Amino acid sequence: MRKSAILAVSLLALPLAACLTPARDFHGYIPDEIQPYDIKPGEDTRSSVTAQLGSPSTKGLFDTNTWFYISDVQERLAFYKPQVAERVITAIRFSEDDKVDEVLRYTEEDGQVISYAARETSTRGRELGLWEQIFGTVGTVRLPNSDEVTPGNPTGRQGQ
User: Fold this and answer.
1) Is-contact 92 39, C-beta < 8 A?
2) Per-residue tens of pLDDT for the chain, all 160 residues
3) Cα separation of 76 and 21, whole Å?
4) Is 146:158 a contact under the CB 8 Å cutoff?
5) Which of 137, 140, 133, 73 is closest to 107 using CA atoms?
6) Distances (CA, A) of 80 to 23, 58, 62, 74
7) DSSP label at 95?
8) Which string of b and e fits 110-145 if b means at least 16 CB within 10 Å?
9) Long-range CB contacts (< 8 A, 24+ apart) of 85-92?
10) Which H or E run includes 68?
């Protein structure tokens, strides 16, 4: 009796344990063999970086001599919002002669929170509640005019 109760409790706890294991999602640049921070300043060129790492995740907006390789790992536990477990941004800056000038590595701790404009356009009028949206058109059905096409008047002409 005691062994069967322990077995039943453990079988019921097994699905719960599966829910507590976070699911990992990988986003952005995923290095294959060579890590971006393994690039040697002064030795590698723009073409050798492209050959080893591929095209960058993004380039600098005002300075196109800076390439960024961005990778992100997020963990989701059950139905909760995903949390960033690891974020690495590698910035590779090139000199004027297309050689690597420096390689910088940033993690999540180096980041700053940037506030930006929401870019939402306000609409005219008022917001409707749930019941107004559902029943708002009751009684506003328009009857057809005599010059409209109806089943009894397929041409839409007024009778003479």
Assistant:
1) yes
2) 677 777 766 666 666 665 677 888 888 888 777 888 788 898 889 899 888 888 888 888 888 888 888 888 899 888 888 888 888 888 899 998 989 999 988 888 887 666 666 667 766 666 777 888 788 777 776 665 556 666 766 666 665 5
3) 9
4) yes
5) 73
6) 11, 30, 38, 12
7) -
8) eeeeeeeeeeeeeeeeeeeeeeeeeeeeeeeeeeee
9) 85/24, 87/111, 90/36, 90/37, 91/66, 91/67, 92/36, 92/39, 92/49, 92/56, 92/66, 92/67, 92/68
10) strand 66-76
User: What b/e string do you get for 56-88 counting C-beta neighbours within 10 Å, with b at 16 or more?
Assistant: bbeeeeeeeebbbbbbbebeeeeeeeeeeeebb
Query: Among residues 46, 27, 49, which one has the least CA distance to residue 38?
Result: 49
In the numeric block, the tokens 């009028």 are attached to: 125
With the CA atoms of 49, 51, 53 and 58 taken in that order, what torsion angle do they form, in degrees rounded to the nearest 10?
70
Contact 149, 156 (CB under 8 A): yes
Whether the full predicted model's pTM is greater than 0.85, yes or no, is: no
Amino acid identity, residue 159?
G
Amino acid at 19: C
C-alpha span between 102 and 66 (Å, rounded): 10
Reported residue count of the chain is 160
Angle at 130 between CA 128 and CA 135, to 5 degrees: 90
